[in-house]
């Protein structure tokens, strides 16, 4: 049997370590769970290659005084030797076994002098690094700042000269000379003038930006043109500083007009093309409120349509164009007006708080925005020069509001053209968005061949039914006495309308897709315990809307296919609304029960949502509840 050997010197327990003394033990020790053994002397010599100053000052040192682990404790299944009662420093996680990489636990007696020396040395090293970085960083920041300031001053002077001629520019900056070159040569440029020139590009950027800090800077910048408050009090329309002072109020008015006009159009297009964009940015309560209002508006439109079809009231037929237009815009009934008013207030809040033009515009790169800001005054000056040279009427108009000199007229014209470019840009973006809306509205999906054939057959059947209805005899024009309102029961409704059929099934895939769209922003929100009630309410509302769609289809088919027994001859217009709600509740109950039975699910069906679609007078009647087979 081979004897165990020291993995450092390859000697056995019978051999002494190389160059050892009589005090050094020949015993092979084990310091980790693996099979390696070593002489204590060899192990210490191997470990001595490490820098003990770093080990001594590291965070892995722990002071131990008579701790319980010293009394035959175990680590990694290996017994630990006694450290003793004196104070030691323990080193761990620094030196590892070369075979199994298990950290070796060492201990040493502390040295206050060496520790203090290491602490001072480390402090001086950190201080020197920090000081060097601070000096280099300050020099770099100073160099970059001076360079950036020089670039801003050069760029600002160029942009200022594009917008304002020399004589106007010297008035704006407060120079005595009427030439910028002479002002610089005579050293009239101070810190205030340098700040105004260098801040002009930032000022133009602030006029285009919606950032709060940039907006504050753009508001304060024009006030720096005035040396004292008396200059502001003596302002008149011929002072060139006035137009820059009015820049922020004009920006506020333009943004308000943009929100009420352009943004309103973008908002309507977003609702038409990308409704999910709006649904993702409103709360669940607001979404449910909008859905309920839309449902009520649809019911009112159905009722209005039935009244127009079945009623020969001359009061509604003799309305003039203005009255019809008023009813179309504001509603023809108090309830409809109330819903429309709430909807318009909500729409107004939306267009005033969010820019919907970004839905149709790609995010511009920062470099492109900087470039367009720089060339903005250049393009304005070129267009203004062409108009002043070619249009006498425009020249006369500008001279009426300028200070009387050609330079003042050029300055005012450049400002007006700059504002016009902003308006032209917004019209162009609106036109591009219109083209995109038109493109998306005509976007289609290629269906599967079998589904496409089924859709064509359904369309053919609908066309045939319409032709049959057109060929029917016209109804008698004799006036019928209005029937009194009666209590409708299930037995009054034709059986074909109340019975479910295999053609109608809940679209559970579409239901899950809508739930995921509304709730699952991170993939887990719909499964959160606190969202169970909201998800269930949304699910029932979705199914009820499918039932309403199916009910409308049945009512139309029944009315067309039974010319001798039309619904209009069975019920009044008010009763038809009750009939519709009966059918919706009936379909909802039967289809949901069938779904649970087919999937062998235990359930307690809550019909609170469905019963909201049944008139209150009907819900309180036990007979109708029994007929509908609704639970108490």
TrEMBL record:
Coiled coil: none
One cellular-component annotation, GO: membrane
Gene3D superfamilies according to UniProt: Zinc/RING finger domain, C3HC4 (zinc finger)
Residue ranges of the TM segments: 133-157
Transmembrane is among the record's keywords: yes
Keyword RNA-binding set for record: no
Topology class, membrane: Multi-pass membrane protein
Residue numbers spanned by region Disordered: 448-487, 608-632
Keywords: Membrane, Transmembrane, Transmembrane helix
Record-given protein name: RING-CH-type domain-containing protein
